[in-house]
Structures are given as structure tokens and as C-alpha cells.
């Protein structure tokens, strides 16, 4: 179970303090000229690049066998979001045993956001009875709006699954409220024929006071605590924050200035000859914003963020292959590391650059979350994992959260957010369904125009 640190911050991204701490670490002693060790990036340039290519459209680069796997993955994932939610409130557990039957009362508002979109997918594909999905969505939205504690429309990161009350002293989280809101707005469009769902979703969105969360600054605060006020860290560097900013800029009631978009730092990094914009290392920062918002075929004044995530995924794959020189089970068939459970508890790890006490643990949602970016490569890994490790990794709800083959360790739990990114990105690869309905929200298109998104003439060209 994830709990807040001393600062009280537990956002999905890594607080800016982590970056500052890394910069302040003791530096290694100087070495004699000519004896410098090769950096990972230099080593990567000598490593044979994977062969695959990517064409932006159409998204059809998976085999029939892989498509059947993704269909099964989605169905089992939708079962997780239906079964591991409270029938009374609709709130989704932060985690649950892979075998099901959890009694945990810890709900995550981010997992609930993914769960709302999973209910749309389940209704569309008949994984669950559509009427049951619609009723669950309506009940969830009603509870969120009418009974769940909030401040200025923002909700606490972890809450009691039955009462909605704050747990663990967690923060009012701007990013987790945003992920919840993404699911809310997806439901508003998919169940557009249900007037109550539409009204509840619209009111929920209009209630979020983004101006308040700016707290007088140019960028959004990471959150707020009742006894301390606003957290000192801000969402000011590239991460999973893009769609949050678009919803804030497009808000019909409490919009923030469009200039905030360009106030975000966008560091350009290089790994193995691949250049891309990135903040901290875990690959999920290049996935979450794309779960709902469709950034294909367009760019702003800085970049095409979809092709940027392709580059980030390719760099991550290459980094994993280099890591395979230390952990020899990691190769073209088995790669992908992102924040996950481990033998020692929850870890925020990944790369490049290397982050965390890496031990060779493999995380299926790392490749599942990048399915639209490298379809053939990522689906191949998922197929290999299921075929090679069988029931050790493939459970009632799909893949376990993580596993370490050498030590024969397999996570016992499924994490809601990891399940969510896997389900949504699998569906986006196969049909673009989540993108299609989320982009029907006029506020998103308005915000994208405000920050100068425009067609990218190079979007359909081959990259990497």
C-alpha cells in the first residue's frame, strides 16, 4: 500500500524535490583521462537497435493472436474495475489481490477515473451488461458530486471506499483529481443520452476551481493539505500533466490563463541517439496524458507529443536492453519497467536515466501503457509474458503488477492505476475509442486551440 512521505506528497509523478535531491547528491571522485566509464547512453549507441518501425496511422500493427490477448486483457481489467469498486459509492480500490475478494477500504480517486472509462469500454464491448455499467457510472458520479468531501472541487488522493473520507492524511491532489475528471468527461460523452449522467459530469467539472490551485503562481500546485495549505511543489516540468492543463485552461467556470501552458519546463534529453522531451524517468509520465486526449497528427509550438511518446518508449526499450547486460532475462522479448510493486514494497523506478534500486523486476503495464506508441513491440512482450510465465503472471484480472523471474517473485496485487493505463491504451490501440469520445468534449478542443495546437504535416511520416 502506498502511503505519503514526510512531505505529505504522493502524486502519481515524482515531486520536484526528487529532482533537486538528485542534483544535490555527492559527485563521484574524478578519474584519470581515458579511464572514464562509458555512460549508459554511450553504451546504448553501440547496442543493436530493434528493427521495428512505426507509422502513425493506421494503428494496425498487431497480430490476430496479440489482438485476442488484448481483448482478454481488457475484459479481465473491466472485471477488476467493476468487482473491486463499492456497489454503494462506485469508488475503486487502490489495489486488490489478483485472485479478487479484497476487503480493503482504501480507494484511489485516480483509479476511480480509470474505472469510469473502463465501464464505458465494458459497455461498448459487452464485457459487462451495458445497463449495469450505466447504472454504476450514474451512482459513482452522484456520490462524487453530492457526498464526497472536497475543497474547491478537488478531492483527496486516497479516500474511504464507503464514506469518501480522507485516508492517510493524504493531500487534495490536483493530478489525481484531473485523472478522475478525465473519466468523468469520458462518461459524459459516451452516455450522452442519459441526462442525469451528463448533468452530474458537467457540474463536477464546473465545480473544480483551477484558479485556486494556481495559488498565485504560473503553474498548478501539486496539492493542498488542511493543516498546511498548498504544497510547495508545483506541476512545472513535463510529466503526465498535459491533459490536466488542457482541462484547466478549457474550464467553463474557473479557467487558468493559456500562458500557463508555455510556463512548463520541457527539458530535451537524449538516450542512444534518440532525442525527446522528458521530466523524471518512469515511462508512465509519457503515457497517462495520452490515455484520454488524442494528441496524434497535431503539435503545439514545442513538439508533437504523440511522436515524443514514441521516442520516449523507444528510448526506454533501448535502456532496458542495455540493462539486460546486468539482468540477462531482459531482452527483446521481455522489457518494461515503471513505478510498481516490488519484493520490497512500492517503488518509483525506471529509466532512462536509471532511477531507483533496480533489481530486474519487469512491469507489464510499462509496455501495455505504450501499446499505441510501439504496437508490434509492446504487444509482442505481453504475448511473451503470458506464454512464458502462464498462471504465475496471468490471473483473474489479467497481468500481475510486476514480477522478478530470477527470484521467482510475482506480485500478489493488482494496482488500479496500472490496470487502468493497460486497459485504456489497449482499447485506444485497437479502436481509438477512448480518444474518440473524450475529444467530443468541446472544452478540450477549445483549450488546444488556445495553446496553439495545429495540424502537424509530418505526423504521418515514419519515425525512429
TrEMBL record:
Residues 21-50 are annotated as: Disordered. Residues 233-441 form the Glycoamylase-like domain. Coiled coil: none annotated. Gene3D superfamilies: 1.50.10.140. InterPro entries: Glycoamylase-like_cons_dom. Keywords: Signal. Residues 1-22 form the signal peptide. Pfam families: Glycoamylase. This is Glycoamylase-like domain-containing protein. It comes from Acidipila rosea.
